[in-house]
From TrEMBL:
Residue ranges of every copy of the Amidohydrolase-related domain listed in the record: 48-424
Keywords carried by this UniProt record: Hydrolase, Metal-binding, Purine metabolism, Zinc
Similarity remark: Belongs to the metallo-dependent hydrolases superfamily. Allantoinase family.
EC number(s) on file: 3.5.2.5
Oligomer status and interactors: Homotetramer.
SUPFAM superfamilies in the record: Composite domain of metallo-dependent hydrolases (SSF51338), Metallo-dependent hydrolases (SSF51556)
Protein's organism: Candidatus Protofrankia californiensis
Biological process per Gene Ontology, one example term: purine nucleobase catabolic process
Cofactor: Zn(2+)
Name the UniProt record assigns to this protein: allantoinase
Length: 439
């Protein structure tokens, strides 16, 4: 049993005792009657919130384990208060675009996951080459299917044209499956300036907001036409929220997410040559960041997830600082909760808001009804956090494989003191007891 003066429940933050049996929450009661009982851990004023559910993580194993792996990614997740991740289908070799590849992926994850792990399937190609695989992947329990409208960065996961995506989503709609999309228009990107050299402004010009707004508008129209559930991944352009709002008001099944780095950093503060900030879509200007925060306040996002996308220092081009050559991706699964809380509290939000964005919302998106909430019947996946505590990000203390982060040296609020997975501690040097999840 865990007791705290600040338990983040679906009804708000309040004093409570959380009763746990066989890995589940069986009751949430007032704390007074249980504080003196021998089986209670009294957290005092430390806050107890649901474990974070991160539905956008690139683990890259098998095939590119030198970039990241299940052991390092999930230990980093547990250290940052994350109790569930959903692994993206690309960057591993083979990509998760067939039942055989999913089987290989699950075998790689078995026995070395510190948190619970689920998997996305993939939609690939300039034709309908793997549509026949989607039903088998769906039956095997993937949480949905990912597609790129622009080049993914790896040859084995080619992007799709909008007409191919239309054929695929008609198929996923019949399955009742969620389709998640990297939403940047390849036509807009092809017309943008090429990226060469150390200037961040060139990378920003190469990925203009129009690439996102055009793609999101197209996805809204596609969802309206097919009835498919579509989800916009890592939205960075605040201007695209107009189409998200219009779709929501029209009853169209289109949702969107954003990421901690878009809510934290601004283009104005990115130094030239600092390729650790490179991601796609890019970190945009300060006004854009505030538009994303306004969208969060208005309920326009289904969740905030990290898009943890690590690579080796060589691929990140840290020595040359060339944005044209560097891999695009930010590794932050250990820091996402603190990064969002740091910015959220400055804007008057509380831990209940953060739990809705990073725990309940992502869990609901993928249908994990027992995750992301402190309520009877839910898994006892819990995070103990000191909301007033702060720390300076030391890359050497990060658990993911390569200590590369734009958060280095930054002071963040919200120190994770403990992470529980089904009622058992999951952080630190404890043996892994994460499970592989199916939809």
């Amino acid at each position: 049993m865990l007791c705290s003066s600040r338990v983040v429940t679906p009804e708000g933050v309040r004093p409570a005792a959380v009763h746990i049996s066989d890995g589940r929450i069986i009751a949430v009661t007032p704390p007074e009657a249980v504080r003196a009982t021998p089986d209670v851990t009294d957290l005092g004023d430390l806050a107890l919130m649901p474990g974070v559910v991160d539905t956008h993580v690139h683990v890259n194993e098998p095939g590119r384990t030198e970039w990241e792996g299940f052991a390092t990614a999930t230990r980093a997740a547990a250290a940052g208060g994350v109790t569930t991740i959903i692994d993206m289908p690309l960057n591993a070799i083979p990509p998760t675009t067939s039942l055989a590849a999913l089987t290989e992926k699950r075998a790689a994850a078995t026995g070395q996951s510190w948190v619970d792990v689920g998997f996305w399937g993939g939609i690939i190609g300039a034709d309908t080459r793997n549509l026949a695989d989607l039903a088998a992947l769906h039956d095997a329990g993937v949480f949905g299917f990912k597609a790129f409208l622009a080049p993914s960065g790896v040859a084995e996961f080619p992007h799709v044209r909008m007409d191919v995506l239309a054929a695929a989503t008609a198929h996923t709609a019949r399955l009742g499956a969620l389709t998640v999309v990297h939403a940047e228009s390849s036509l807009v990107l092809e017309a943008a300036p090429l990226v060469v050299g150390r200037q961040y402004a060139r990378w920003l010009a190469a990925r203009p907001p129009a690439a996102e707004t055009e793609a999101v508008a197209g996805l809204a129209a596609l969802s309206a036409m097919t009835g498919a559930r579509l989800h916009v991944l890592h939205l960075s352009a605040g201007a695209a929220l107009d189409d998200v709002l219009t779709a929501r008001d029209a009853g169209i099944a289109l949702t969107a997410e954003t990421c901690p780095h878009y809510l934290t950093f601004t283009a104005e503060e990115v130094p030239d040559g600092a390729t650790v900030y490179k991601c796609a879509p890019p970190i945009r200007g300060e006004d854009n960041r505030e538009a994303l925060w306004q969208g969060l306040a208005e309920g326009l996002f289904a969740g905030v997830v990290t898009d943890h996308s690590p690579s080796t220092p060589q691929l990140k081009a840290v020595e040359s600082g060339d944005f044209g050559q560097a891999w695009g991706g930010i590794a932050s699964v250990q820091l996402g909760l603190a990064a969002v809380w740091t910015q959220a509290r400055r804007r008057g939000h509380d831990l209940a808001d953060v739990a809705r964005w990073m725990c309940t919302g992502p869990a609901d998106l993928v249908g994990l009804a027992r995750k992301g909430r402190i309520s009877p019947g839910a898994d006892a996946d819990l995070t103990v956090i000191d909301p007033e505590g702060s720390f300076v990000v030391d890359p050497a203390r990060l658990a993911h494989r390569h200590p590369l982060t734009p958060y280095a040296g930054r002071t963040l609020d919200g120190v994770v003191r403990a992470t529980y997975l089904r009622g058992r501690r999951a952080d630190g040097d404890r043996p892994p007891h994460g499970r592989l999840l199916s939809r």
